[in-house]
Automatic annotation (TrEMBL):
Lineage: Bacteria, Bacillati, Mycoplasmatota, Mollicutes, Entomoplasmatales
Cited Gene3D superfamilies: 1.20.272.10, P-loop containing nucleotide triphosphate hydrolases
GO CC, alphabetical: DNA polymerase III complex
Organism: Spiroplasma turonicum
UniProt name for this protein: DNA polymerase III subunit delta
Domain DNA polymerase III delta N-terminal: 11-132
PANTHER family (UniProt xref): DNA POLYMERASE III SUBUNIT DELTA
Amino acid sequence: MYNKNGEKMFLIYSNDDYLLNKQTKKIINKLLENEYYEVLRYSLIDSNINEIYEEINTISLFNEKKIIIIEDCYFLTEKKIKLHQSFDVDIIKKIISQKNINQLIFTLNSETYSKRLKISKEFELSCKILEVKKPSYNEKIALVKRKLTDNKIKFNEDAINYLLEVLPDDMGVFSNEVAKLIEYNSFIDINLVNIITEKYQNFDIFSLVETILDNNIEDFIKKFNIYVNNNKDIYGFLALVLNGLTTLRNINICKKNAMSDNQIIDLLKINPYRLKVFSNKKIKDISLINDKINLLYYLEKNLKSGLFDSKIIPELTFLKIFN
């Protein structure tokens, strides 16, 4: 799909960061098959909008075309997420309406965008919009079984169900752990699943979520240090906490709307076991949960972009979680 000036642009959105990045890379790789592009990445949270606009409209040194990825397009939602102080929606309107030789990919880490907003309607007219949905519980089960069958690996049905109960609802974690199962190349039973997912079971993610929301910094640091010393995996840690916070928030929202357990299971695509565990938690302040989620996403983003050292977690960022 092309904008009114005949140039191709994409808007990709998903509530799973792994799937969002995977789809973005897929489009980039497809474009690179035909010709060379310089690939540049910006964030509307961290980057100056005027610099982004200038980059889009500046010819590169060797006259090369560019693929410009513009992340964190939260202006398309009604979420109160603070963008860079220079952000101006009018500049975004200019970007999507003008003609240039570059390929633009806008990304949004969100389950949806607000179709009520005028700027969203302009994007619908100007961009090819791709929604990357997270697979449901049953779809994940089918996916694991298909991958194991394709690799001629036999398995116990209960072990596959147990795997999904233990893992956090994060497709990056899911993909990594399924790959580990395949690497073992042996019969998959509950014992093998326990071995592979040990780090997720030996760590009480729910008590960690509570320390964050209770502003209990001493208990949080203690539990975090235990996790890191045992697992050496900061990305796994962030995935666990973000998944726990997001699930807890969504369940609380559903409960406030008087939804039944069956309705919540159907809407959130959550298995009954996880719903039962989260429903027993007493934390109900949705705005507080959202604040913690935003700060942790900020930390994750800066770790992945290399701005923060993944081996030396910036203490100031963690302190902000408890403000």
